[in-house]
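User: For a reading group we're discussing how well predicted structures match intuition. Take D-cysteine desulfhydrase family protein. Before you show the prediction, I'll give you the sequence so everyone sees exactly what went in.
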Amino acid sequence: MTSLSDVSRPVRLGTWPTPLEPMPRLAESLGLGAEDLWIKRDDLVGLGGGGNKIRKLEWLCGAAVAEGATHLVTTGAPQSNHARLTAAAGARLGLETVLVLAGTPDIAAQGNLALDALFGATCVWAGAVDGPALTAAAEEVASRLRAEGALPAVIPFGGSSALGARGYASCGHELLMQDPGLDTVVVAVGSGGTMAGLVHALGARRVLGVHCGAVSDPAGAVATLASELSGAPLAPDSLRLRMDQVGESYSTLAAPVMDAMNRTARSEGIALDPVYTGRAVAGLIAAVADGDITPGRRTVFLHTGGLPGLFGHSGALEATAADLASRSLTP
Ligand SMILES: *Cc1c(COP(=O)(O)O)cnc(C)c1O
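Assistant: Thanks. Here is the predicted 3D structure of D-cysteine desulfhydrase family protein, as structure tokens, for the group to look at:
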């Protein structure tokens, strides 16, 4: 079986370093100083519409290419940014991409799915399954491909293995070069590899994760990956992790998240997505309100991408349509 763990040279997929820019108007609207809040633009990595999965895929695809893979196989929700960026990486590297998605083929091909199609990915619909069943379905697809003489590389859910998380250890080092005095990096947490890599590079105290509802035990997931990276155990309760921004479920939109999306867009001209980055900024706003983030210190929001998901999220599109209607002038 193809293992991605023992080869460790990344391929280049993105454009580095990503910019670090101030957000003075959002900062002042939150009661912070104009210089206190910055944004790290990992939405601008270049390939495939951008986003945090590219740094992980540089390592994971590096291993796949070194092992002579013909196919990339990965899993996700229908609106998975990771699936979309794996398809883009496959296209860039000349590999076939197979996406094993939790859902049924009647789901509208909007948002990320439209881009999956554009990048030429093949979708396998696994039905309404849980995480372990989705992983099993991907292994089955990989076995079938092997039986046909192909060499598939299975990329883990969200690109989150210790190997993939190395991409965010590098991001942490890149951030320290850009701003040696940074106090706190705020990041959305899905499968956990992004936060784990940052914790490895910056230490647990400087990383504030905001759980987005993609996994049941985010602290455990991040701590396991960070421990694998460093070779030393990390206690889950040493992590700074906010659990208060999920709302009803992973796919629903809570009012504070829509508010964070509106505030960021209207003060800085920067668009967030309703699943990850909207929740991360909602968590940042809550952290300022309860004193976990304070004026006079440098806070960096890591923009992890995800904008295509806005165009495949019915709740967010209904909210923006209603908002637009409420502000329309009659001629
Ligand atoms: C996947 C994703 C995250 C979460 O990253 P993990 O490493 O899975 O925790 C955050 N933001 C966006 C836009 C994502 O697509």
